[in-house]
Amino acid sequence: xxxxxxxxxxxxxxxxxxxxxxxxxxxxxxxxxxxxxxxxxxxxxxxxxxxxxxxxxxxxxxxxxxxxxxxxxxxxxxxxxxxxxxxxxxxxxxxxxxxxxxxxxxxxxxxxxxxxxxxxxxxxxxxxxxxxxxxxxxxxxxxxxxxxxxxxxxxxxxxxxxxxxxxxxxxxxxxxxxxxxxxxxxxxxxxxxxxxxxxxxxxxxxxxxxxxxxxxxxxxxxxxxxxxxxxxxxxxxxxxxxxxxxxxxxxxxxxxxxxxxxxxxxxxxxxxxxxxxxxxxxxxxxxxxxxxxxxxxxxxxxxxxxxxxxxxxxxxxxxxxxxxxxxxxxxxxxxxxxxxxxxxxxxxxxxxxxxxxxxxxxxxxxxxxxxxxxxxxxxxxxxxxxxxxxxxxxxxxxxxxxxxxxxxxxxxxxxxxxxxxxxxxxxxxxxxxxxxxx
Length: 438
Prior knowledge:
This protein is of the alpha/beta class. The protein has helices at residues 13-24, 26-33, 58-61, 66-71, 86-97, 107-124, 140-147, 162-174, 178-187, 196-199, 202-216, 235-244, 305-325, 368-378, 408-419, and strands spanning 3-9, 36-43, 62-63, 77-80, 101-104, 128-129, 153-159, 226-227, 246-256, 261-271, 283-290, 294-301, 353-354, 356-362, 383-388, 397-403, 406-407, 429-434. The chain has three domains: 3-135 and 305-325, NAD(P)-binding Rossmann-like Domain (Rossmann fold, 3-Layer(aba) Sandwich); 140-300, Dihydrodipicolinate Reductase, domain 2, CATH 3.30.360.10; 349-434, 2-Layer Sandwich (Alpha-Beta Plaits). The strands form three sheets. Strands 7, 8, 9, 10, 11, 12, 14, 15, 16 and 18 form a ten-stranded mixed β-sheet that branches. A six-stranded parallel β-sheet has the order 3-2-1-4-5-6, with helices on both faces. A two-stranded antiparallel ribbon has the order 13-17.
């Protein structure tokens, strides 16, 4: 029986999970491929710590030299799981130069340097697969490249960061302030300390860049995606959103506008009735609409040793099948044999048109609401609903509004003018509303 040798670089959480899946389900995987997948080498700077699964014979398999693994002529496929940018890029490019297929879970590297890696894979005639880079155990990459490949993707809205979703869930269900919810997420191991890339939208933007690149057929750098985080969201905003019939989520959004793509990551209000509004804790979900298939939802654990290891192994199996079949030309990394030569134009955030939620902090005196409404009117922003709570103690009060659809540039100019009023005591909180498009 054909034997396919695999080398794993990085034996941390995901590396150990990948090895566990390959070992535990070895016979199942062999039967599905018709070939034996063998982990020949594992490279890591720490080869002494117990990963909870035996590696035998350890002396032959474990090494601290990643380049020695890559240069091994018997290894057919290299799995990069070290994360980061520079070292990981060097490992992947070297493996491709050696004619080896590559599997990676490195979302940041793909989002920032994907074009280089995709080009290298094509030039060296090797496969590059990255199912685990988005959504952990959710098979969204395979769905876009294969299951939905006959469709023009019209809309993609995702909860792509489990840490932020966990924090917002605790703020919603238990009324915790942001800092306490973060502390709980860190304590339970759902977040790094501090979880900057999670709560500022960077992690979700990395993943959205990969989704857009596959859905629309050309590499997109995450630096072109507008992103905000959830730091400014308070339990008050979540409570007011509920009064209006919404939930607050960190959403990654991409929409096909015909001549350009809408691409953005930020906190957003979504109807309580929408299925994404009920994705809680550390779970991820991706809602997709195709022109023929209609709405699809993909839901599951977005991180963790076993779910992410499962996704890595799915890529190993996919490439192993192509190796066994003797494919003369492998499936391109983005699933497009003829990528868009003109690239993808991203709509400027200033041109976004959407409803808005505004929360103003103002002194409790007559005429404040009319002054705020007057400025909104000057910028052609019409009010849909208003909540104005009476003062319970000395100090400012909150005036909360939902607007009809307005242009982002107009909303920002109006808020800038309102924040300069002598009756406004703090910076206005702005949350965009995802409404009619879903």
